[in-house]
Amino acid sequence: MLVTGGGGFLGQAIVRRLSEKGERVCSFSRRSHPQLIRMGTEQIQGDLSDARAVLRACEGKQVVYHTAAKAGVWGRFEDFYRTNVLGTRNVIAACKAAGVQRLIYTSSPSVIFDGSDMEGVDESAPYPRHFHSAYPRTKAMAEMEVVAAAGEGLCTVILRPHLIWGPGDPHFAPRIIARAKRIRRVGDGNNRVDTIYIDNAADAHLLAAERLATRPELSGRIYFISQDDPIPVWDMVDAILASAGLPPISGSVSPTVAYLAGGILEIAYKTLRLKGEPPMTRFLARELATAHWFDIRAARRDLGYDPRVSTAEGLRRLAAWLQNDYRRPHRPA
């Protein structure tokens, strides 16, 4: 088994689950990760943009879990394209050349986000005419490459997890905690969103590979995966803050103000060539003010996916990690 991005949050969870099942696992990423060394995982260093390195990593593998990606709401399109599109293209080519049997690709629900509410949306929803950020645009392009590969004989499944969180999270929860004093609600706070606990996300990936082995007719299909428990986005933010022993968010701004602020900050960062990413962008403003929850009946039916860790239990585990294992002070987001 090969996991691209095996040192990442999701990648490590998949590596751990595969190892627990007795599978021989290899990770492909740009650097070595101490956590994987402790798990006894073979590691291959390389960049997704290096076709030869990707081919070497895929040789002798039966299944590839392609989780590696460049994520974020800000940055140059070229950088996202190189990793998310060209990188995925290299993975597909390597799988074909090396005789890999199955490819499980990690995508994102943001590929269908058009700036409006998404409530109970299923896999039939089309890509938008216009993307508000390079990340969803390039992930959508990569999805199309993976679907096309299925038509050319490679068995593939695409999964769309939304807001992965849990113990060990290096991004979502830590960023909320680090920005706790500066965060303001966008809108009335009633817009519901889907999330997915890390163990459930890993389970879904293993299930996809297992089902694809016995049901090749599933190849090329796309599945939303989540807790199947939509929650108001700001309730989730407050729950994460409470897990860290912090008070809930108190202030708020209107979606219009947040959107205008995002536009102004984008211009400032581009014009002044400021480092890092703006604290608000137009894409982020729309995401925070709209609903994002999805129909996962297809994943239940075809993959046998059922979130075994509830949101309440996941928050309990997150709180334990934050209190016992997560080291402060937090790095600035």
Question: How do you describe this structure in short?
Answer:
With 333 residues, this protein is α/β, with parallel strands linked by helices.
Structural class: alpha/beta
CATH architecture: 3-Layer(aba) Sandwich
Identify the quaternary structure here: single chain
Q: How many β strands by DSSP? A: 15
DSSP strand (E) fraction?
A: 15-25%
Under the CATH scheme, which class?
Answer: Alpha Beta
What about the largest sheet?
7 strands, parallel
* End-to-end Cα distance: 33 Å
Number of domains: 1
Which outline best applies? globular
Which properties best describe this structure?
alpha/beta, 15 strands, two-stranded parallel ribbon, disordered C terminus, Rossmann fold, 333 residues, globular, 7-stranded parallel beta sheet
Topology:
Elements: E1 2-4, H1 9-20, E2 26-29, H2 34-38, E3 42-45, H3 51-58, E4 63-66, H4 77-98, E5 102-106, E6 118-121, H5 134-150, E7 155-161, E8 164-165, H6 172-178, E9 185-186, E10 192-193, E11 196-197, H7 198-214, E12 221-225, E13 231-232, H8 233-243, E14 252-253, H9 255-272, H10 282-289, E15 292-294, H11 297-303, H12 311-324
Parallel strand pairs: 1-2, 1-4, 2-3, 4-5, 5-7, 6-15, 7-12, 8-11, 9-14
Antiparallel strand pairs: 10-13
Helix pairs in contact: 1-7, 3-4, 4-5, 8-12, 9-10
